[in-house]
Structure formats: C-alpha cells, structure tokens
Amino acid sequence: MFKALIVDQVDGATKAEIQQLEETQLPEGDVLVAVSYSSLNYKDGLAVTGKGPIISSFPAIPGIDFAGKVLESNDPRYAPGQPVVLTGWGVGERHWGGMAQKARVKGDWLVPLPEGMSERDAMAIGTAGFTAMLCVMALEEGGVRPDSGPVLVTGASGGVGSVAVALLGKLGYQVTAATGRTEESDYLRSLGASEIRSRDEMSAKSRPLEKQRWAGVVDTVGGAVLARALAETHYNGTVAACGLAGSHELNTTVMPFILRNVRLQGVDSVVCPAPRRAQAWQRLQQDLELSRLGEVTQEITLEQVPDYAARILRGEVRGRTLIRVED
Ligand code: NDP
C-alpha cells in the first residue's frame, strides 16, 4: 500500500483527501517510480480546489510534476534505482500524477536527473523553474544578451517569476521584478533583481507604444501587464509569454511588432519535445545557483496540499513549494 492524495467530485463539489492505494490501482505505463518529491504549481492549485477544469476524469491523483527513483521499468532507457524527473505531458491532468508515493508513467515522459542534481533540487525547480528556463532560452534565441539592456520579469514573487529572476540575475542581466507584493522587494533583490516595479504601474492602461525600457520580458501574468510590457519593449526585443496569472486576455495593437520589430514568443512546457527538455534541465544545473533555491523554497506534506492549493490561487504563496511525498 502507498499514500496518495485523491481528488474526487462528490455532489458536484471537489474533494481532496489522503488515501491508501495498491500498486494495481495505478494506470498503465512502462515505468514505475517511487516518488520522493512533487511540487505545487498554479495549475495544481486549480486541480486540487476544482477551481479550474484541469483534471479530465475522477477520481484522480493530481501533481503535474515529480522526482523520484525508478522501481520497475519495461523501457530499456531506465533501470531500477535511476533518479528521474517528470514535468508536464498531461500528468496530474489526464494521467495520475505526482502527489503520491508511487507513479506509473510512460518512459517517454521522463528525463534522467542531470548529474549532481538531487531529487529535492529537481522539484524545488519543478514545472515552474523548468518553464522559467524555457523563457530564458526564448529570450536568448531572440538575441537578448546581458548587455542588450534591462529585462523585466512579471509575477516575480511567484514560482516561475522567482526562478526567472534568479536565472537572469546569475546570467548577468539587469533584472526589474514587477510584483503586486512590494513588501517582497528585499526577497526579490536577494534573488537577483536590481529594480522593483509595482503591479499597479505595470497594469495601468498603456498607449500602443510607450517609452522603450526592456530588451526582454518574461511574462507570467498576461492581460494588461503583458500589453504594457509589449508597448515598453525595445526595438528588436523579445517577450516570452508563459502565463495567465492575471488574465488570459491580451488587448494590444500591432505597433510594437511592426514599428519596433518586437517578437512575442509563446512558451509551453507541457509538450515541449524531449531534446529541448534535456537541454533545459542541463542549463538549470549549470545556470541556477541551486543553493539559492533554499531561499525560494518551502516544504510541505501531502496533508497540507489542499490548504496551500487555495493559497496559491489567492496569490499568497512566495517562490516554490516542495511537497515531500516519501515517508
Ligand atoms: P504562482 O501563483 O506561483 O505565481 C504567479 C504570480 O503572478 C503571483 O505570485 C503574483 O506575483 C502574480 N499574480 C497573481 N495574481 C495576479 C493578478 N491578478 N494580476 C497580476 N499578477 C498576479 O504561479 P506559477 O509561477 O506556478 O505560474 C505562473 C503562471 O505561469 C500561471 O499562469 C501558470 O498557469 C503559468 N504556467 C505556464 C506554464 C506553461 O507551460 N506555459 C508552466 C507553468 C506555469 P506577484 O505577487 O509578485 O505580483
């Protein structure tokens, strides 16, 4: 028997509780993993509270990411004892996820942990940190370099935002962190931000073109904040858009694109192809000061997940939240 968080719908209401399961209850897959850590992402908040249509059929185990060791494998690429990490692929949505002591998944969805990265480190990074790395890679592919000018990170005290600030700071960029929690300014400066901009200022309605401020932008918020970020981006700048924490809408004009050559690059982490995943995990190992993750990370148990799921949706969770799954 092993412990799992089960999300179910009872009389139209979503309920999340800890249950003991047997291995035979797990879905089909080539690799059985002993999960040591999962993590709490915004999407998990939606899944566990039922506030967003994330889980496709009930009952289900949530958890869009996990790290652990292979227990059994029918995939020749994986052997028992091997440390692995998984993010995305609909795990924790269409397939049972990481908030349990065991998970059975497709070998294609796994990434071997980079040498020197612990399972705990991997989940301190998690989907959010992996997505932040993909955003940084998108800026680099758009030609943004540390000497191109200041870069902006929106939703900076959240999971994606915190890791993006830490990565860009370590890479030598001059980072401005846009946040609704200006009381977190010291925290954001300790991560690598040199300037703080308030969310109110960033969400004020913008003209089609504003003063050019940013060589690059990592946007986790969408809506009016993304519209302003586009209007404030330098000639030839790149905006990497990965989130909708503020809004899924985007009301903008073509002006930044046709007059300033601005590139708006979407970033998806869920079905990101395997070679790019491996590259992003290697880059995280190389470019993220793993010791800094301690400052960004808090650790909770499976039992605490429902409470923290509600908190992440209220924008009250700072940085990354690790879920310790093993006993
Ligand atoms: P978090 O909740 O940890 O962070 C989101 C941050 O956005 C908050 O901390 C807050 O930062 C800011 N924020 C929250 N509400 C609002 C609001 N109403 N208006 C403006 N800003 C707001 O979430 P994650 O970091 O895990 O995810 C961030 C976003 O990225 C989410 O929308 C998520 O769905 C998306 N995402 C997308 C992925 C992809 O593959 N494309 C993968 C992972 C995440 P502050 O207090 O500093 O302002």
CATH architecture of the largest domain: 3-Layer(aba) Sandwich
Total strand segments = 15
Highest CATH level, the class of the largest domain: Alpha Beta
Share in β-strands? 25-35%
Following the backbone from N to C, one meets helices and strands in this order, namely EEEHEEEEHEHEHEHEHEHEHHEHE
Count the domains. 2
The CATH superfamily label of the largest domain reads: NAD(P)-binding Rossmann-like Domain
Helical segment tally?
Answer: 10
Main pleated-sheet profile: 7 strands, mixed
What name does CATH use for the topology of the largest domain?
Answer: Rossmann fold
Distance between the termini: 13 Å
Shape: globular
Mean pLDDT comes to: 96
Contiguous uncertain segments of 5+ residues: none
Describe the SSE topology:
Elements: E1 2-10, E2 13-21, E3 31-40, H1 42-49, E4 65-73, E5 83-87, E6 102-105, E7 111-112, H2 119-141, E8 151-154, H3 159-170, E9 175-179, H4 185-191, E10 193-198, H5 199-203, E11 214-219, H6 223-231, E12 233-241, H7 255-260, E13 263-266, H8 274-287, H9 290-296, E14 297-301, H10 305-313, E15 320-324
Parallel strand pairs: 8-9, 8-11, 9-10, 11-12, 12-13, 14-15
Antiparallel strand pairs: 1-2, 3-4, 3-6, 3-15, 4-5, 5-7
Helix pairs in contact: 1-10, 2-3, 2-8
Outline of the structure:
With 327 residues, the protein is an alpha/beta fold.
